[in-house]
Amino acid sequence: MYQPIVRYHLDEHDDWVAELGCLHFQHVRHKPPWQDREWVTSVKGREGKVGRMLNCVKCVSRAPADHGEGVAANSLRLPAGLAAYKTTPLFDQHNAPGGLQKEHATASGVWALLHVLSGSLVYCFSVESKDVSYEIGAAQPRVIVAEQPHFIVVDRPVTFQLEFYR
Q1: Is 19 exposed, middle or buried (0-12, 13-18, 19+ CB in 10 A)?
Q2: Short-list 42, 60, 50, 63, CA closest to 20
């Protein structure tokens, strides 16, 4: 199962570890000839891979999260090279589409940004059959990962819109 790279940290052996959007860690070593990842060796190379999808073998085996909900809700970035192609009208607590409040996912290759302009709402998704939710307020855009099932809870005053990328 492919998951987005959120950020990196060094382990106790000074090897780079990618922190994935699914809350798992995965080493991203450059050890030729077995692992050729030259991009790992520079800040620019690593930063260029934030938001890119990486096959998470821990998701496939349903391993527990490597850390709790410690990944910041808004630390995820859109992958490089995507372009905005559609923006929804403004929604509020009175006209938020019901489909957004039921579990759904974007199409393959389609990412989105959830912009809350005033108030707040709750963004929910599942990791390892566990529901994770974050309150998203104004000036905290939330990246919505392509094909990741999610929904929002609109139970308070809010104004928001979605911007889609591919």
Answers
A1: buried
A2: 50
Q: How many CA atoms lie within 13 A of 22 on its CB side?
A: 26
Q: Which fold has domain 84-165?
A: Jelly Rolls (2.60.120)
Dihedrals phi, psi of 153, to nearest 5 degrees: -115, 120
pTM of the model: 0.62
Which residue pairs from 9-13 have beta carbons closer than 8 angstroms and sit at least 24 positions apart in sequence? none
1 in helix, strand or coil?
coil
H or E element that contains 152: strand 150-153
Residue 69, pLDDT score: 43
> Are the C-beta atoms of 21 and 6 separated by less than 8 Å?
yes
Reduce the secondary structure of 69-117 to three states and give it as a string: CCCCCCCCCCCCCCCEEEECCCEECCCCCHHHHCCECCCCCCEEEEEEE
Which tokens go with 156? Answer: 């308070």
Under the banding of pLDDT at 50, 70 and 90, the label for residue 75 is low
CA distance linking residue 146 with residue 109, whole number of Å: 6
User: Where in the sequence of the chain do the CATH 2.60.120.10 domains occur?
Assistant: 84-165
